[in-house]
């Protein structure tokens, strides 16, 4: 088909005028029967704060050796399903990880293997929720809300409690022996938390966590990216008073959160804007937000190593074509109403999936970049955790954990 060939050419889409002409012509075949990928939503694309593509890519070091692909190893294949966040307990056991089937599981060594550690709701049943390696497919979507989807995990270093950010059940806590987690925070300012995503624990006991959007839940997260909407928040749960407070709002897909080693600031990723941000929590700049780094793709979680440096997992990548759509919300609203299936639209935008992980210092200086340039070994990475001479790499959409000897 003529149209498809045109769409295949990424450079074509980098010229706004050509895109506009193409889209105007496309009105002729526009979705009168509401078949387009976003037709069931009230789609409101907006301009968002993303750094210019060329400027970011020009300064971004490349890993010409594609070291992630070369040295990375897939472990636990078809034993874990979408292990988003990886955590180790105070005795060094683990990893613990949250799965697409709603469970938090832990690795107990070769002999015992994986065991179910916790679930986030009494609604969870094996019959309805456990779907093996189909858990990471669309087959789980209609059950997710009931079964839960544990994302960010953190152990309290003092007492061994595990804190869980669940995409549907908010912030929860479970004791060192696991079981059914207790909800801590499900509402803020009288409204339900729609999409809790990640958390970290301050030394003073406060739990900082992200709520990705007020409008879309996890299954619909792609629309947050497409719209560029910024209704996400950083929240703080205060254990003594059992209250939840809004710390920051108007964020564009706030995702990973990590408190600094000296507790003077925290960093968080804004996935839609492809960047890492910092919130000061002490000193003269207390309460102010600073930009730390622009990234070549869409960041997920951020985790600190023992030196106080930050590992960011990035799904790649931004493209020039996206940039045009990004800067022209009106183009986006037409583009994504075309009666073409989402996958072709993504392809047309030149979205080749590959993986970048990076280590940054507190000023955003790039200390290391590791890539899987073809996305052969690792795709859709969600977290990088440096532990026991290895990088442990989670993924939200695949059924394995990747590891890499490190340093
Ligand atoms: C990596 O490749 C790019 C071009 O793809 C080149 O400009 C750069 O010099 C290379 N870097 C190294 C360290 O080889
Ligand atoms: C699903 O898991 C089983 C093992 O439980 C494995 O044999 C099979 O290849 C997996 N399917 C896919 C598509 O990975
Ligand atoms: C069970 O699921 C329903 C519907 O999704 C929800 O309203 C309810 O709060 C859940 N119950 C518990 C105990 O989590
Ligand atoms: C803990 O620190 C945070 C960040 O400075 C602050 O917002 C919170 O009020 C503190 N909590 C207590 C109990 O001091
Ligand atoms: C920083 O600001 C927060 C909220 O504005 C406040 O709760 C906290 O006590 C302040 N911390 C310091 C060390 O001043």
UniProtKB/TrEMBL annotation:
The chain crosses the membrane at residues 12-30. InterPro entries: 6-blade_b-propeller_TolB-like (IPR011042), Strictosidine_synth_cons-reg (IPR018119). It comes from the Eukaryota. One of its GO terms (molecular function) is hydrolase activity. Residues 197-283 form the Strictosidine synthase conserved region domain. It is found in: Vacuole. GO terms for cellular component: endomembrane system; vacuole. PANTHER family: PROTEIN STRICTOSIDINE SYNTHASE-LIKE 13 (PTHR10426:SF21), STRICTOSIDINE SYNTHASE-RELATED (PTHR10426). This is Strictosidine synthase conserved region domain-containing protein. It comes from Trifolium subterraneum (Subterranean clover).
């Amino acid at each position: 088909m003529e149209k498809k060939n045109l769409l295949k050419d990424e450079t074509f889409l980098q010229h706004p005028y050509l895109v506009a002409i193409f889209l105007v012509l496309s009105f002729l075949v526009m979705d009168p029967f509401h078949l387009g990928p976003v037709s069931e939503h009230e789609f409101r694309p907006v301009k968002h704060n993303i750094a210019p593509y060329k400027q970011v890519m020009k300064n971004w070091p490349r890993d010409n050796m594609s070291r992630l692909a070369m040295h990375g190893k897939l472990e636990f294949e078809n034993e874990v399903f979408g292990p988003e966040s990886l955590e180790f307990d105070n005795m060094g056991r683990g990893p613990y990880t949250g799965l697409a089937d709603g469970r938090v599981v832990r690795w107990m060594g070769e002999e015992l293997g994986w065991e179910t550690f916790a679930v986030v709701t009494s609604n969870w049943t094996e019959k309805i929720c456990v779907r093996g390696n189909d858990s990471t497919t669309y087959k789980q979507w209609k059950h997710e809300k009931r079964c839960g989807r544990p994302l960010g995990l953190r152990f309290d270093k003092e007492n061994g409690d595990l804190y869980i950010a669940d995409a549907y059940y908010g912030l929860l806590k479970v004791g060192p022996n696991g079981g059914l987690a207790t909800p801590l925070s499900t509402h803020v300012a009288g409204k339900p938390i729609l999409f809790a995503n990640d958390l970290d624990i301050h030394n003073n006991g406060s739990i900082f966590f992200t709520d990705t959007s007020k409008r879309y839940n996890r299954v619909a997260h792609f629309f947050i990216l497409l719209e560029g909407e910024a209704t996400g928040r950083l929240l703080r749960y205060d254990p003594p008073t059992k209250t939840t407070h809004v710390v920051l709002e108007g964020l564009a897909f706030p995702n990973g959160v990590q408190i600094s080693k000296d507790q003077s600031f925290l960093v968080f990723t804004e996935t839609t804007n492809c960047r890492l941000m910092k919130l000061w929590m002490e000193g003269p700049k207390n309460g102010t937000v600073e930009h730390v780094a622009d990234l070549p793709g869409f960041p997920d979680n951020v985790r600190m190593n023992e030196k106080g440096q930050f590992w960011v997992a990035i799904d790649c990548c931004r493209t020039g074509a996206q940039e045009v759509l990004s800067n022209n919300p009106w183009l986006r609203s037409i583009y994504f109403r075309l009666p073409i299936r989402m996958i072709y639209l993504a392809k047309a935008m030149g979205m080749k999936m590959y993986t970048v992980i990076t280590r940054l210092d507190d000023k955003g200086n790039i200390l290391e970049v590791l890539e899987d340039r073809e996305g052969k070994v690792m795709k859709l990475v969600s977290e990088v955790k440096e532990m026991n001479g290895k990088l442990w790499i989670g993924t939200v959409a695949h059924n394995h954990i990747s590891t890499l000897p490190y340093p």
